[in-house]
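Methods — Computational structure assignment.
A single polypeptide chain was analysed. Its primary sequence is given first, followed by the predicted tertiary structure written as structure tokens.
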Amino acid sequence: MSIISKKFADELADKRMRDAYLAAQTRTRVAYQIRAIRTQRDWSQGDLADALDTSQSAVSRLEDRQYGSMNVKTLLDLAATFNCGLVIEFVPYADFLVRTRNLSPENLGVSEFSAKSLEPLSRDFGGAAATVNVSIARPGGSESVDIAGKQNSNAIPLTPQPTLQ
């Protein structure tokens, strides 16, 4: 099964179409993810508004894909409130299409921070490149990810980090 149709690929050859799709899909994904995480936590819009020190109508706007005025500070506030990380990065367009194709709540949910989840990342491997398999809990199942040493250019090198005293 293909990620996109040939017709859609042809349409994306037009820069204006590509830019419009990027904006719409990004707004949609962010809005849907906010709703998915809020729902996953069993919070109402009012509960999230209280946690963010804002109004319920402001939360409603954040969950509306037509609303496109979020800024990085708002996203960071949401990440802190949801007790999770936030990644903002530029990627090749093909990667964008792959990463944003599944907008289901099950795919968009995020587990809260857990100190236990950091244990595999904090192991000392004596400076040698190593591969660690980390299981990431997601609603509807878990996902295994290999975090490798420098052999993989997309991997996180696992080297001991200095401890601040």
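Note: Residues 71 and 77 are 10 Å apart (CA to CA).
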